[in-house]
UniProtKB/TrEMBL annotation:
<feature type="transmembrane region" description="Helical">
    <location>
        <begin position="100"/>
        <end position="122"/>
    </location>
</feature>
<keyword id="KW-0472">Membrane</keyword>
<feature type="transmembrane region" description="Helical">
    <location>
        <begin position="41"/>
        <end position="63"/>
    </location>
</feature>
<keyword id="KW-0812">Transmembrane</keyword>
<feature type="transmembrane region" description="Helical">
    <location>
        <begin position="134"/>
        <end position="158"/>
    </location>
</feature>
<keyword id="KW-1133">Transmembrane helix</keyword>
<feature type="transmembrane region" description="Helical">
    <location>
        <begin position="6"/>
        <end position="29"/>
    </location>
</feature>
<protein>
    <submittedName>
        <fullName>Uncharacterized protein</fullName>
    </submittedName>
</protein>
<feature type="transmembrane region" description="Helical">
    <location>
        <begin position="75"/>
        <end position="93"/>
    </location>
</feature>
């Protein structure tokens, strides 16, 4: 195994991703696909509005002082941008602005790539999930939930207009 590789951490992330996908497909997707598109997108974006939690990676004591500060900063600011884009998306969806769907695309693409980038950088540069300290639950539980949320948003955005209820 590579140095710092943590099979329990990888299995934890995989388990959270699988469980999130199953719960989403059984419980969440049937509900959101039956909702008017703007309402469903607003509901799913609301979950992402809490991504400011990633800023805690830059808080002394939340993570190990040995955690690469560049990685912590990239994660924190990327999440704050994603949370801000989610909040803006919620607002323009609520106001039924013509920019609403393009804004959701921007938020969802940014948010997805931000999470995947954090996993990639974490896997290639951090290699020791123990350095996340109290923040271990963010990549182990919260990020898989967020990734599934992004997938659901993409599914709604890619659905033909004839298959979605109008808002």
């Amino acid at each position: 195994m590579p140095p710092g590789f943590s099979l329990p951490f990888v299995l934890s992330v995989a388990g959270a991703l699988l469980t999130s996908a199953v719960v989403a497909s059984v419980y969440v997707w049937p509900l959101v696909r039956a909702m008017p598109r703007h309402d469903a997108l607003r509901l799913l974006a609301a979950f992402h509005a809490f991504r400011f939690l990633g800023m805690n990676f830059m808080v002394a004591g939340f993570v190990s002082p040995e955690l690469n500060p560049g990685f912590a900063s990239e994660v924190g600011w990327g999440d704050l941008i994603a949370a801000t884009l989610a909040l803006i998306s919620m607002a323009v969806l609520s106001w039924r602005r013509s920019i609403a769907i393009p804004m959701v695309w921007i938020f969802n693409i940014w948010g997805t790539f931000d999470l995947l980038n954090a996993y990639y950088v974490g896997a290639t540069k951090i290699r020791n999930p123990g350095l996340f300290g109290a923040g271990i639950y963010i990549p182990a539980l919260y990020v898989p939930l967020l990734l599934v949320g992004h997938a659901l948003i993409f599914m709604l955005l890619l659905k033909p207009a004839s298959e979605t209820r109008k808002s």
